[in-house]
Predict the structure.
Amino acid sequence: MITSKMKQRALVLFSGGQDSTTCLAWALERYHKVETVGFDYGQRHAIELTMRPQLLEKMRKLKPEWNEGLGEDHLLDLSLISQLSRTAMTENIAIEMQENGLPNTFVPGRNLMFMLTAATLAFRRQATVLVGGMCETDFSGYPDCRDDSLKALQVAINLGMATRLNIETPLMWIDKADSWHLAERLGGTALINLIRQDTHTCYLGERGHLHDWGHGCGTCPACELRANGYRSYLESKG
């Protein structure tokens, strides 16, 4: 855990899911001031958007220093994304693989637009760091989650905006089990329980039953990844 905070302002891409919540805790431990941004992009369910405000309030209560460091939350309208492509994340269609080798849960350009609009907001809010939960270890092959993509985007943003923004992806090279371990190191059992009970990852928007790993349908790719990671995390703890 980081004991001395950098005197920088960070903006965390915060969806209300497991990964972005872990990244928020990471940023709160690392940076002096942290703001959050979420996106309404016409997703097929709005559960993540519903969970975000109460999740942020509960994060504040985990540590006094997190409450002090956590600043304003922003919600941006990117519904244009849902008009540009037909995917299982924006329409009520079955999740399946496509001829190009990518699952139809991939929303072309989504993370690129997220980062670009976050960078524009960061410019106004005087933030010098963008934090995202992209991961190349446990992912579905999404090209906009790759480290090379994010590094190239950082260069393009800074050239185009005359800034020195850093894009940080603390989960890039760890798997889901390690992300549970990271959350435990950052916020202890309290953060683990908060992630289990209050974050949302399920592609189908299922929020009824609480499994040992959290809420979700239990069968979609996001639920399977989260569940398998949680069980591996528990096994490694003995």
User: Anything to note?
Assistant: DSSP finds eight helices and seven strands in the chain. The chain has a mean pLDDT of 89. The chain has one domain: 6-200.
